[in-house]
Amino acid sequence: MAEVLEVHGLTITAKDTNRVLVRDSSFSVDAGETLCLIGESGSGKTLTGKALLGMLPDGLLMAGELSFGGEVMSGYGKKEWRQVRGRRIGVIYQHPEQALHPAIPIGRQLVDLLRSHLPVTRHAAEASARAMLDKVSLKDTDRLMKSYPFQLSGGMNQRVMVAMALLLKPELLIADEPTSALDVTTQSEIIALLQGLVAEEQLSMLFITHDLLLAGELADTIAVMKQGEIVEQGTAAAVMHRPKHAYTKQLLNCRSSFRFTSEEGAYLYVGNR
Ligand SMILES: Nc1ncnc2c1ncn2[C@@H]1O[C@H](COP(=O)(O)OP(=O)(O)OP(=O)(O)O)[C@@H](O)[C@H]1O
């Protein structure tokens, strides 16, 4: 399968303290593949995602090579990043307010996004926006196009954010803990939606989570991060059922539905979460 994203030796350092926040991290995402980056809070997942969007905060230094669609992005300037971010790499955050403007109706946000990247008429952009809202299973699109984010539930806003992320038909979707702030039922609905869209659009996805079981449900491959380093990576089946690193075993043991059986050296799945 063709590689969409390749990260080689990504290292992120705080300039003032010289603290290494992400160390020599290498991974790749193939076309149509979902890679889950998992690890506890502070392990460097979000910074890795930000590096891939050219959005690292000032004060951090990046080294290593990032390639997307065969093109090296590591040396990109602001203009090149703007052409990739949002257009070729879509992004979904934990909180919709990170992506949606609170004082602009949903419809206008979608239309403006389309028209800022593509030479389309307002009428055509509105039709595409409605079609995309429909695709993320939001009903009553006429009313929705005129609604503000605060008038929608958390789950609906999350769906709008998915619609925004996919509107420009990106090749890669970066989802940073997109369901962590949602209740369990809504979380399952959003995960099912993402799984459906990824399959339908043949999208590649980098899914960032602290939840190894969720990673097991979604991922083709999993990379486990601890204190800025990838300590284990492999197919989802290998990482979930034959974990090698003590930290991965610890993450699995934290979830009650998995139990480590020392005689067999394997994890047994003993029910749903
Ligand atoms: N702008 C910054 N300057 C200095 N250190 C930072 C900066 N941003 C993040 N860090 C530090 O880098 C480390 C990794 O942060 P990051 O946000 O990537 O972790 P994470 O794995 O995404 O955690 P979480 O799940 O809590 O979001 C943390 O120790 C964090 O405090």
Molecular structure report:
The protein contains 10 helices and 12 strands. The protein has a 6-stranded mixed beta sheet, with helices on both faces. Strands 2-1-4-5 form a 4-stranded antiparallel beta sheet, with helices on one face. A two-stranded antiparallel sheet has the order 11-12. The protein has 2 domains: 1-88 and 172-241, P-loop containing nucleotide triphosphate hydrolases (Rossmann fold), CATH 3.40.50; 103-167. A hairpin with a 4-residue loop joins β11 (258-261) and β12 (266-269). Helix content is 36%, strand content 28%. The two termini are 33 Å apart. Residues 258-273 have low confidence and may be disordered. With 273 residues, the chain is an alpha/beta fold. It has helices spanning 45-51, 78-84, 106-117, 122-135, 141-146, 154-166, 184-201, 212-218, 236-241, 246-253, and strands at 3-14, 20-30, 34-39, 60-68, 71-72, 89-92, 172-176, 204-209, 221-226, 229-235, 258-261, 266-269. Adenosine-5'-triphosphate binds at residues 14, 21, 39, 41-47, 57, 59-60, 210. Belongs to the ABC transporter superfamily. Keywords: ATP-binding, Cell inner membrane, Cell membrane, Membrane, Nucleotide-binding, Translocase, Transport. Its main location: membrane. It holds the Pfam family ABC_tran. One of its GO terms (molecular function) is ATP binding.
